[in-house]
Amino acid sequence: MSKKNGKNGKQANYEPKPEDKFSFGLWTLANRGRDPFGDAVRPTFPPNDIVQVLGEIGAWGVNLHDNDLVPIDATPKERDKIVREFRAACNESGVVVPMATVSLFFHPVFRDGAFTANDPEVRAYALQKTMRAMDLGAELGAKIFVLWGGREGVETDACRRADEAVKRLREAVNYLCEYNIAQKYGYRFAMEAKPNEPRGDIYMATTGHYLGFIPTLDHPEMVGVNPEFAHETMAGLNFMHGVAQAWEAGKLFHIDLNDQYPGRYDQDLRFGSANPKSAFWLVKFLEDVGYDGPRHFDAHAYRTENCEGVKDFARGCMRTYLILKEKAERWNEDREIQAILKEISAAAPNVPKNGRYSEKGAQSLLAHGFDKDAMLRKRLPYELLDQLTVDLLLGVR
Ligand code: GCO
Ligand code: MN
Ligand code: MN
User: Fold this and answer.
1) FRET label pair with 7: which of 93, 291, 302, 393, CA 20 to 30 Å apart?
2) Residue 288 among the catalytic residues
């Protein structure tokens, strides 16, 4: 990948730096290409080796589920040794652990869900497992704890009333918030929505569902969201819009970046590889508002790749983000684009100012005569604005 001089003489070599806060889940690089129809195509990639590779390619952080690192049936002694060695590997590679999470989906015991399962014993086990995963994350320095309810759903609604699932989920998250306080972990929980896969339907299908759920918790300030590009795209939604709403509500605690073609199975493609224009609007949004949390890639390499290809995949995620970030800067500096933006929201003279309600203001608004024909004459050159964007993205501007 050659170095190029960007506009304004800026060096644009797209090399990731720690301040970019790029992170990868252990499970992403460790993905062996297994799918419902075929077995693994790549060898096991041990956690400590992954951390070394992440350091080598310039990533800042590594995230993990409890069982990405510690096997589910490990003894306390085995666990401590694994954690000690992993910490040493992280320190050696200069890679931090910003986020931890828990697998409540892989073990068959979670076949009916975890926090929402009908069996109270499964619900209790899910809580215990999550508390232990919180202990593990805290030991590694994580301050964000992601909760993804992959199995919290149904194939048939005969199994429970859907509002009962919401109540059970609330009870569990409240419990975990209390544990967070009692242990003084200082975690912020980030709830990750997904519409389906692995369940036929998953409760809390979108980021918006979670934004409605969070204010009903005992400690809403401790809980935010972890929106994922692929998940909202699977639901046919505009990902950036969901991210923007979370941001505006002060709830964007984490983000999962990848890509996805709508109407397909859960693809977890390299960031920006399927919908580069949507990825551009997203990166522009995150950079414009100054989001300073982790930029986490929750994706994996094509099943056709070998171990070298996994590195190409990981480098590609970061490179595309940085290219789009540079494009966003150019977009913001582009005079023609900026002039159009100014023009489209300029007010004609004598427009009544509304803003906050007052009786006087309402009276004058009610009395105002609007010239709809004049309003319609104002041009809204969005075709031109979009084409300028396309020119910029395709590299001819
Ligand atoms: C998926 C999810 C997961 C979660 C992860 C963190 O579609 O499988 O995106 O990768 O992000 O389990 O909790
Ligand atoms: Mn996903
Ligand atoms: Mn995810």
Assistant:
1) 291
2) no
Query: Ligand 1: which residue has its CA nearest to atom 4?
Result: 148
Active site residue 201: no
CB proximity list for 234: less than 8 A, separation 6 or greater: 194, 195, 196, 197, 260, 262, 264, 266
> For residue range 149-170, what is the model confidence (pLDDT) as tens digits?
999 999 999 999 999 999 999 9
Burial (CB count within 10 angstroms: exposed 0-12, middle 13-18, buried 19+), residue 59: buried
Alpha helices in the chain (DSSP H): 26-29, 47-57, 66-69, 76-93, 120-139, 162-182, 207-213, 229-234, 239-248, 276-289, 307-333, 335-344, 359-367, 372-377, 382-393
Domain around 368:
335-393
Q: Out of 333, 353, 368, pick the residue that ends a domain.
A: 333
First to last CA, the chain: 21
The verdict on the CB of residue 105 being under 6 Å from ligand 1 is no
**Ligand 1 binding pocket includes 194 (Cβ within 6 Å):** yes
Nearest Cα to 192, choosing from 157, 242, 238?
A: 242
Number of separate domains in the chain: 2
Which residues share a beta bridge with 297? Answer: 24, 257
* One domain for residues 253 and 364: no
Which ligand approaches the C-alpha of residue 27 most closely? 1
pLDDT at 2: 41
Q: Does any domain span residue 301?
A: yes
- Residue 198 Cβ contacting ligand 1 at under 6 Å: no
Residue of 66, 68, 298, 334 with catalytic role: 68
What's the CATH code of the domain at 205? 3.20.20.150
Are 247 and 356 members of one domain?
no
pTM for the full model?
0.96
- The H-assigned helical ranges of 34-75 are 47-57, 66-69
